[in-house]
């Protein structure tokens, strides 16, 4: 198992753009030093709690101060870019990072992000995403083409001796791609399986995650690909401290608790997603509070407790997966406990899990 960060970010609205930017870059440095394998940066233009409209700026800054960790957006919202612009930009970044760049893509789900770009109907966003990917992949091949699509037109001219066209191929010749999914039978997870992309599942319940494993595997098989759980990223919250009580307190009274209390839980309840969190408990959806999450949903506790919770979780899933991604929260004013938790996860928990705990389950 590998460990990464999904820097959404979940920072409160009063944080300035400078604070959000500095935190996102500094967290990449912490993750790199702790031994994390990848660091993903979210993208939203209008959301107060997820205020990074340009993940490539964070990635470019982090590229200069990290050494090993892979960096990428999760995800660029493809309907809101001309695909040729994004393709050339991403390929350029992949060369700057010399193989440490990977690209997450998504159709965009928030109406306000769409309306900002003059789009009022999100029903075509998936089709726009698919056409955008087709155009980007043609550009990355580096071969001349002309394309007239439903949403965009693009071409890569041949050039001549006096005016050669710059090579548009990404580092290594191919672009590593990823897609996120949350809902059961997720179309994004299915699309990822069919196209050989890495799936990133936002955890809501064991049954939903197992369903994502199945959807990805089946879509990959239908496309003649091998899609096992080693390709899978799973996003879940973790907080580790010296004792269970201290970890619970730091989670609930810190940035994690505030983000869920003021932003995430109201969203989950509004969209009917909170009920899944009660799976395996005797609680109802009305009982889903931050305190419930700390005791039944987040993975919180001492090193020993967190290791035991991981072992139990993987056993319930019937096997493991490739990479755990943890969200990042607002611990800007007192980062030490949060950064110590990150380091303990990578250095004290995961290496001490049983060797076969994260073997891919077929």
TrEMBL record:
MF terms (GO), sorted A to Z: monooxygenase activity; oxidoreductase activity, acting on paired donors, with incorporation or reduction of molecular oxygen
Organism the protein comes from: Aurantiacibacter xanthus
Domain Luciferase-like residue range list: 1-313
KW Repeat (keyword) present: no
An annotated GO cellular component: cytosol
Name assigned to this protein: LLM class flavin-dependent oxidoreductase
Family listed: Belongs to the bacterial luciferase oxidoreductase family.
Coiled-coil residue spans: none
Keywords recorded for this protein, A-Z: Flavoprotein, Monooxygenase, Oxidoreductase
